[in-house]
Design a protein that fits this description.
This protein is mainly α and 228 residues long. It has one domain. The chain is built from seven helices and two strands. α2 packs parallel to α4, α3 packs parallel to α5 and α3 runs antiparallel to α6. It is elongated, with a radius of gyration of 22 Å.
Length: 228
């Protein structure tokens, strides 16, 4: 019985990781890196924050025999929606700004001019000069987003697990395997996401278009969560 519950908890965690708001958050963060290692790092960061929050909050509530206050989950959901809107706007802003460059040139008479222009092809400019390593900051953001999502999912998960677990220890074990499943699910999603991102990275216009689409979808989903 316990083994089947643990397996169910793990599979539920995998499915939970692939819910729309989770996918949107990690997809928005993924626009800051196109490397497979970077994507897996942010997926692991999100999953770790999510799992630790669920395990900590769930264990405390199980130990004291309580549940989260009514309305707390709805409040956190609206907070997540607002954060998604901000993230989506930031992705759109960077998509617009990505290929805009400022150059200064000097004429023979000594006059200097400032030019703002757009590079549509990678060959037109040395993109390497503008690449920066945002892996650590992106992982930190993923960890924070995972923690926030963990708070939103704790109440519903406890209502599902506690009545059937039979003991507090078994319930905590279910929470732990649920967390492990959410990490695995998000890493699988990141693997799938790496292919279009790596292909788009070869084409400047495709990269900006993909980021714009991800940003717009993230904003719309955030607004939907806030108003639901």
């Amino acid at each position: 019985m316990l083994a089947s519950m643990l397996l169910f908890g793990f599979l539920l965690g995998v499915r939970h990781a692939l819910e729309a708001d989770h996918v949107a958050a990690v997809a928005a963060l993924s626009t800051r890196t196109s490397s497979l290692r970077g994507l897996l790092r942010l997926a692991a960061g999100w999953g770790t924050g999510h799992s630790l929050t669920i395990l900590f909050v769930g264990s405390v509530l199980i130990a004291v025999g309580a549940t989260l206050p009514r309305g707390s989950e709805a409040f956190v959901d609206r907070l997540i929606g607002a954060v998604l809107v901000v993230m989506g706007i930031d992705v759109i802003r960077r998509a617009v700004k990505r290929h805009v460059h400022v150059h200064v040139h000097e004429h023979d008479d000594g006059a200097r001019h400032l030019h703002l222009h757009l590079h549509d092809a990678p060959a037109a400019h040395d993109a390497g000069r503008h690449d920066h390593d945002h892996s650590l900051s992106t992982t930190g953001r993923a960890l924070a987003m995972g923690t926030l999502h963990g708070m939103a999912g704790s109440a519903a998960l406890l209502l599902l697990v506690v009545p059937q677990a039979g003991s507090g220890l078994a319930a905590v074990a279910c929470l732990a395997v649920f967390g492990a499943g959410s990490i695995a699910g998000m890493m699988l999603f990141s693997l799938a996401l790496s292919f279009p991102l790596r292909i788009a990275a070869r084409f400047a216009g495709a990269t900006a278009g993909l980021e714009g689409a991800l940003g717009t979808a993230t904003v719309l989903l955030g607004l939907r969560i806030m108003t639901s």
